[in-house]
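Marked as duplicate of an earlier ticket. Keeping the data here for the record.
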Amino acid sequence: MDLKSSDPVTSSPLPSTVNNALKIVIVGGFGVGKTTMVRSVSEIRPLSTEEVMTRAGVGIDDAGEVQGKTTTTVAFDFGRITLNEQMVLYLFGAPGQQRFWFLWDRLFSGTLGAVVLVDTRRVQDSWYAIDRLEHHGMPFIVARNDFGGPEHRAEDIRDALDLSEDVPLIECDARQRASSKKVLVTLVNHLYSLSTREHAP
């Protein structure tokens, strides 16, 4: 399955032929690129709940590795991708700070699968996301977002996150539409593979 290759637009009406929608969530640590991914790939103007970071977050939000970050998601980001004439994909970017984690369980409601974005400079920031997804029994893939840091072998990242071999692990650049599309295609194909396996005789 592939996603349409048209560039992002500010207004793209939902086709009248659509009769099925898939909901996925993009999760990960603070400043890992969730909002960026939704913005880069959405075919509609994304809904964003970003607010300017204030002194209220000092000592609470760890911005040590993302010192240039001035805004933060306080609820969720929302975007949309048309898969084909009958199906659309709704994207929800979850907030990354610990003080907003209570929203995650509600975002997970009705979700078929998730993307875990990872910054390999801060692998530990992704542990909670993976733990919550496993707790909910939700299928997911892991995407290493390229922040230009030192290269890591896929085996090292898999070991650091304690990922089983059946969880796809891919590279991406959340700023690039084509790269973000590849992540979503990987997730949809993973969900399809799991569904086929479950219904196999």
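See parent ticket for discussion. The mean pLDDT is 79.
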